[in-house]
Amino acid sequence: MIYDLRSYATIPGRTAEYIDLHQTHAFPIMTHHLGEQVGSWLTASGEINRYVHMWRFQDMSDYERRYAALFSDPAFVEYRTKIMGARGLLSEQQTTLLKPTSFSPLK
């Protein structure tokens, strides 16, 4: 397994707006293509104004195949360009692919 950990910095004061748009528009499309989400969180300390989510994949091939399908879905393209692009809610994105250790409870 590999895990895709994504972190998005929102413009201060606009996190709730981003979460609402993401939940309403992006999350159903992402779930369709990426499968069940491991989890999603808002930061409560440290770097605030961040939304973090994690997805699980069998391997890199599975990851690449699923994300290719997501990024070619016209509804997701519209979300990214027309809905998100026009609002300017995000200031940064970080993506980290994680491989579990032999003693990790998540395999």
Short description:
This protein is of the alpha+beta class.
Any overview of this molecule?
The chain has 107 residues and is of the alpha+beta class. The protein is built from three helices and four strands. A four-stranded antiparallel beta sheet has the order 2-3-1-4. The longest helix is centred in the N-terminal third of the chain and has 20 residues, at 15-34. The chain starts with a strand and ends in a 9-residue tail after the last strand.
Whole-angstrom Rg: 14 Å
Number of helices: 3
Query: Beta-strand level of the residues, as a percent range?
Result: 25-35%
Helix content: 40-55%
Order of helices and strands: EHEEHHE
- Order of strands across the widest beta sheet? 2-3-1-4
Overall number of strands: 4
Distance between the termini: 6 Å
Largest sheet: 4 strands, antiparallel
Mean pLDDT: 94
What global shape is seen? globular
* Backbone structural class: alpha+beta
> Residue ranges: pLDDT <50 for 5 or more in a row?
none
Fold topology:
Blueprint: E1 2-10, H1 15-34, E2 37-42, E3 50-57, H2 60-72, H3 74-87, E4 90-98
Antiparallel strand pairs: 1-3, 1-4, 2-3
